Amino acid sequence: MSELGPSSERRPTGITGLDRILEGGFLVSGVYIVQGPPGAGKTILANQTCFYHAAGGGHAVYVTLLAESHSRMFAHLRRMAFFDESAIPDHVYYLGGYSALEAGGLEALVTLIRGAIQKHRATLLVVDGLISAQESSPSDREFKKFLHEIQTVAELTGCTVLLLTNAERASGFFPEHTMVDGVLHLTDEVSELRPLRHIRVLKLRGSAPIRGLHSLRITDQGLEVWPRLETRVSPHVVDEETVGSGPKLPFGVSELDEMLRGGVRPASVTMLLGSSGSGKTLLGMQFLSEGVRRGERVVYFGFYERPDAIIAKCQRVGIGGLKEGVERGLAQIIWHRPVEGVIDELGESLIVTLRRDRPQRLFLDGMEGFERAADFPERLSHVYGALAQEIEQLGITAIYSTETRELFAQTIEVPIHGLSAATQNIILLRHVEHRAAMLRVLAILKVRDEDYDAGMREIRITDSGIRLLHTFAGESGVASGGGISSAARPPQREA
Amino acid sequence: MQSKQSILIVDDEFGLAEMLREMLRDLGFEVTLAINGRLALEILEEGTVDLVLTDMMMPVMDGAELAAAMRSDRKHRGTPIIMMTSLPTANPQPDGLFDAVLRKPFTPDLLLKTMLGCLASGHAGATERRPN
Q1: DSSP three-state, residue A102
Q2: CA distances from A254 to A140, A471, A495 (A)
Q3: Is residue A220 a contact partner of residue A76, using CB atoms and an 8 Å limit?
Q4: Where are the beta strands (DSSP E) in chain B?
Q5: In degrees, to the nearest 5, what angle opens at C-alpha A380 toward C-alphas A376 and A384?
Q6: Distance between B91 CA and the closest CA of chain A, angstroms
Q7: How far apart are CA A306 and CA A376, in angstroms?
Q8: Chain A contact for B65, CB < 8 A?
Q9: Which secondary-structure segment (H or E) carries A162?
Q10: Strand partners, A61
Q11: Is A108 an 8 Å CB contact of chain B?
Q12: How many residue pairs from chains A and B have C-beta atoms closer than 8 A?
């Protein structure tokens, strides 16, 4: 006789990111614990899985034990897109199990569960409030016996079982963990006034889940899970030699393209580093505008300016073609609010767009948007590395802007740790005080393994586009805000 | 005088049934509890019940099955049955099994008004009424 146990067949949750983490979903006949503090999303996860299962023709039974009342639960679930009342009771059936538990103990509860699975031909069972069963158990041994019986029922009926419980336990001992096929742990914390929700796979038999913490959010769609962005990119070391050797991509600003000896290399990453208002966004948009003019696909991905506003702003200063590019399907303007975002959600949005549309040019406007959405700052360098790797693998030439914290300073500091390591080229933009005037300046700080013009130029934004001027010829210390003239002659105004 | 009337509450959700029982007892009703339809039928066989308040989804035997069993039994055919449901739009009245539907959560006033109405008229679809 063959040994019974979960098959390798999967029962998806319908939560895309979670199914990716679980390698396709829960195992048929598998028994899983979903644990976490109140409000972490356990009940939503379980209900969402039930309704997804029902939508595919399956049957689910949801048993509550001293959890919230069904009417209260429905009131919360009703606003979520997955909740389909028409699936109740034929495909999703709700039962209260605590009265049976109180009257007849764990044995009565097992009887109730077994009967409900059979009667409703359930292939998915949820027991919400496992802690009540555990607390009513006279010993750990009896509780393990109860779990064993649930496992047996699951094996015999092909039913997948989710046991929801509160993770907090004074003893710190979780005998149930040894009995089940998997344990998912949900967390709900607040960091610097921001809510942070995560999901982690503590145990998963028969699978190689994506380990570690993954971002989770509860929206009107239900639970949304984003596997850590770093895991979305296949391991691949960026080889500088593989950065495109084809024709360079110009900005369409003749003076800058001359300084760059024709533009930036294909599949390279260029940082526009500068203070607020120094012209980073417009220079990045100019790069995209030039791409559209050449018939290339381009993507803008930003956080601070809405698509219509940024196109209008470009048109005002003679950076044209973007609106027409959008209309022709060459240009995409993607905007995300930086507030309350999840870094993995932003990264997913970007990666999906890039993989789908394969643009030649990308402008990431304001990397601080990623920084603000980061749950753990120490992840940022990994996230940037992963994004850079993905961009390089797709052969996309990327420009990104990041803001220096100081408007004027003697030193120039890349504000986000780990950013410059994933960058081939760095262009500095900033304000300087020069002869009783505030000027914008541009300088190329780095072009990896290539010759470039390291001179400082005034960057002037006119009604007819961006121009670079030789304002500072013969002067030193301009970048740090202390331009000193070495000659009494008036500055040459144009390049 | 409804103070002597007997109500059977059938609900598997712990807490709600107990709360209803206390509330109705305070109003002078005799109240019995059952946690599923099958236990409710046993109670019905043992004594007189003037009205059944039943949940829809329950283990072993649900509210619709209970109502169908009662309607097919001459002894209980005329007993009014009020369905309590958490679902706001579902129509839990297959074949007129139930005399009224209460959507959870409901107020004590609405419960009492609905109960008194059903007690006064008996089961609307009954072919045989219980003697007063």
Answers
A1: helix
A2: 76, 16, 10
A3: no
A4: 6-10, 30-34, 51-55, 81-85, 100-103
A5: 155
A6: 10
A7: 27
A8: no
A9: strand A160-165
A10: A93, A125
A11: no
A12: 63
Nearest to B87 among A69, A88, A119 (CB): A88
- Residues making up chain A, counted from first to last: 495
Q: DSSP state, A185?
A: E
Its pTM stands at 0.79
Phi and psi, residue A477, nearest 5°: 70, 20
Give burial (CB, 10 Å; 0-12/13-18/19+) of B22. exposed
Mode of pairing for the β-strands spanning A213-219 and A222-226: antiparallel
Question: Which residues, including other chains, have CB under 8 Å from residue A189's CB and lie 6 or more apart?
Answer: A195, A196, A197
CA neighbor of A256 nearest in space, from A88, A41, A470, A432: A470
Cβ-nearest to A69 among B15, B56, B62? B15
Name the phi and psi angles at A185, rounded to 5. Answer: -115, 125
Cβ within 8 Å, pair B86-A70: yes
A441 CB-side CA count, 13 A: 30
- Are residues A71 and B86, on separate chains, in Cβ contact within 8 Å? yes
Q: Is B90 on the interface with A (CB under 8 A)?
A: yes
Q: Which residues of B touch A98 (CB under 8 A)?
A: 13-14
pLDDT by residue, tens only, chain A of 495 residues: 444 556 678 999 999 999 999 999 999 999 999 999 988 999 999 999 999 999 999 999 999 997 788 988 999 999 999 999 999 999 999 999 999 999 999 999 999 999 999 999 999 999 999 999 998 899 888 999 999 999 999 999 999 999 999 866 655 557 677 789 999 999 988 776 677 899 999 888 877 777 788 999 999 999 999 998 888 776 555 555 555 678 999 999 999 999 999 999 999 999 999 988 889 999 999 999 999 999 999 999 998 888 899 999 999 999 999 999 999 999 999 998 766 568 888 888 899 999 999 999 999 998 888 877 777 777 777 888 888 888 888 999 999 999 886 655 556 565 556 566 678 899 999 888 777 778 889 999 999 888 999 898 999 998 888 999 887 766 665 555 554 444 434 444 443
Exposed, middle or buried, B17 (CB in 10 Å: 0-12/13-18/19+)?
A: buried
In the structure encoding, which two tokens stand for residue A162, read together?
A: 């989710």
Do the Cβ atoms of A362 and A399 come closer than 8 Å? Answer: yes
Establish if B110 touches chain A: CB-CB under 8 angstroms: no
Q: Which two tokens stand for residue A60?
A: 């689910």
CB proximity list for A417: less than 8 A, separation 6 or greater: A377, A380, A381
CA proximity to A284, closest of A365, A359, A357, A388: A365
Chain B residue numbers with beta carbons less than 8 Å from the beta carbon of A93 are: 57
Residue holding tokens 């979960």?
A6
Query: CA distances (Å), A162 to each of A31, A62, A97, A215, in order?
Result: 6, 9, 15, 21
Q: Is A468 helix (H, G, I), strand (E, B) or coil?
A: strand
Q: What is the DSSP string of A128-155?
A: E-HHHHHHT-SSHHHHHHHHHHHHHHHH
3-state secondary structure (DSSP) of residue A480: coil
Q: Is residue B15 within 8 angstroms of chain A, CB to CB?
A: yes
Strand A269-274 with A298-302, pairing: unpaired
Set of chain B residues whose Cβ sits within 8 Å of the Cβ of A99: 12-14, 17, 35
